[in-house]
Design a protein that fits this description.
Strands 1, 6, 7, 10, 11, 12, 13 and 14 form an eight-stranded antiparallel β-sheet that branches. A two-stranded antiparallel ribbon has the order 2-3. The chain is elongated, with a radius of gyration of 21 Å. Helices cover about 20% and strands about 30% of the residues. It has two domains: about 140 residues, Trefoil (Acidic Fibroblast Growth Factor, subunit A) (Trefoil); about 40 residues. This is Ricin B lectin domain-containing protein. InterPro entries: Ricin_B-like_lectins.
Length: about 190
């Protein structure tokens, strides 16, 4: 069964942690408090969505997929020569993955065959910030993932809210720059 293109939360079957973009360039285990759901509502009534755990999955013409983080716009990747226990990283360069449904409906393995044999995304334990690494067994539930589609309207609302914040920051920076330029011009005139 192929995956429909869209925004997804990727959750490990065994440990229940989410795949998330770290502050660096690795993909790590992440979770939130029970009081927050995939999309919580803030006190102001807005949807609260952590974009570091939301991934855009797109299908390529060769029936493989790209997995790109919504927050950073970077693609999940491996090194040129992937090996067992190597961390999943992110990069600006497009990388392709196979996503295959397991015998259990709704569970998937995410794999690369760049190493001449399939290697699968896996999670060794349930600790936060544990890197997601390449493993060699598709049958282990810790190497299997559930993909939950994110409501695009919620995602769009969150992105628009971020855009409003960025526009506000831009206006403040423009005003600060204008003020500094004016001070510099005033200094030059008085000299």
């Amino acid at each position: 069964m192929s995956i429909d293109p869209g925004a997804y939360i990727i959750q490990n079957v065994t440990h229940r942690n989410f795949a998330a973009q770290s502050a660096g360039t690795t993909v790590v285990a992440y979770t939130e408090s029970r009081s927050r759901s995939i999309t919580s509502v803030t006190s102001s009534g807005e949807a609260d969505l952590n974009l570091r755990k939301v991934w855009s999955i797109s299908r390529l013409n060769n029936d493989k997929y790209t997995i790109r983080n919504i927050e950073t716009n970077e693609y999940a990747a491996t090194s040129t020569f992937p090996a067992i226990e190597q961390s999943i990283i992110t990069t600006q360069a497009l990388r392709q993955w196979d996503i295959k449904e397991t015998a259990v409906r709704g569970r998937y393995v995410i794999c690369t065959n760049r190493a001449k044999s399939d290697l699968y995304w896996g999670l060794t334990d349930d600790e936060l910030d544990t890197p997601i690494t390449l493993r060699d067994s598709p049958n282990t539930p810790s190497n299997q993932w559930e993909l939950t589609k994110v409501d695009l309207w919620v995602l769009l609302g969150h992105m628009r809210a971020k855009l409003v914040g960025l526009r506000h920051d831009y206006v403040e920076l423009q005003n600060a720059y204008s003020e500094l330029s004016k001070r510099e011009n005033d200094k030059c005139v008085t000299m």
